[in-house]
Known about the structure:
The chain is globular and about 55 Å long. α4 packs across α5, α4 packs parallel to α6 and α5 crosses α6. By secondary structure, it is α/β, with parallel strands linked by helices. It contains 10 helices and 9 strands. Strands 5-6-7-3-8-9 form a 6-stranded mixed sheet, sandwiched between helices. Bound molecules: adenosine-5'-triphosphate (ATP).
Amino acid sequence: xxxxxxxxxxxxxxxxxxxxxxxxxxxxxxxxxxxxxxxxxxxxxxxxxxxxxxxxxxxxxxxxxxxxxxxxxxxxxxxxxxxxxxxxxxxxxxxxxxxxxxxxxxxxxxxxxxxxxxxxxxxxxxxxxxxxxxxxxxxxxxxxxxxxxxxxxxxxxxxxxxxxxxxxxxxxxxxxxxxxxxxxxxxxxxxxxxxxxxxxxxxxxxxxxxxxxxxxxxxxxxxxxxxxxxxxxxxxxxxxxxxxxxxxxxxxxxxxxxxxxxxxx
Length: 265
Ligand SMILES: Nc1ncnc2c1ncn2[C@@H]1O[C@H](COP(=O)(O)OP(=O)(O)OP(=O)(O)O)[C@@H](O)[C@H]1O
């Protein structure tokens, strides 16, 4: 298996995702401070920074699990008007189920660990209104296959699977309804290096095949370098630098980015 670095895709259209000037405080901790981010259709935005820099809080906002104190969020999709932070809980849930997929670092957050793997994916498919067991299972199998999950383990519950396989079930669930946006929160952190490379390979292939817009958060520059077209560097809740991945890795401008990149080399 080889991972190749492709030239960044040229994007000329409107951003699919626009987050503007979001801030979030927990008690006396300013988790995110006046952050803006965009992702163009078919692009992978990587968000990198040390632990506590606000990456996951920002991603949770993009998944409408978290509402900022200030700021707006729009997705340029049909029937998705206005500032999404103003939607009520039901509308948020429907939007997330049908248009946004997410893979968490911790599979317990994304999966029912004692239900079968195919059942976990089928549960997501129920949102589409499909009720035929045979069709749900067939579609779940297709999504698991696309995520390179071993199909002889369809009935195994995630609790009995390896970390890499659990991430593949989360991924299958996330892509089952062909979302416009896929959010990945430290998708390979905690996996063995060889398993990590295989999961990254699957993500890269899926992105290339389906042109899904992705936002990937990681403290690991290797993950960001493998997946991202454009990179946003966060520190202490703020964005310190944004640029094309090649520019960030080859010619970082901010002292903090330079430190991150040189520490990795
Ligand atoms: N629900 C919460 N309640 C209180 N504080 C929180 C909450 N979520 C995040 N924080 C705080 O906000 C800051 C940013 O956290 P966040 O998880 O977004 O950072 P991160 O860059 O994703 O780091 P990590 O990779 O370690 O999760 C941290 O100081 C964290 O303790």
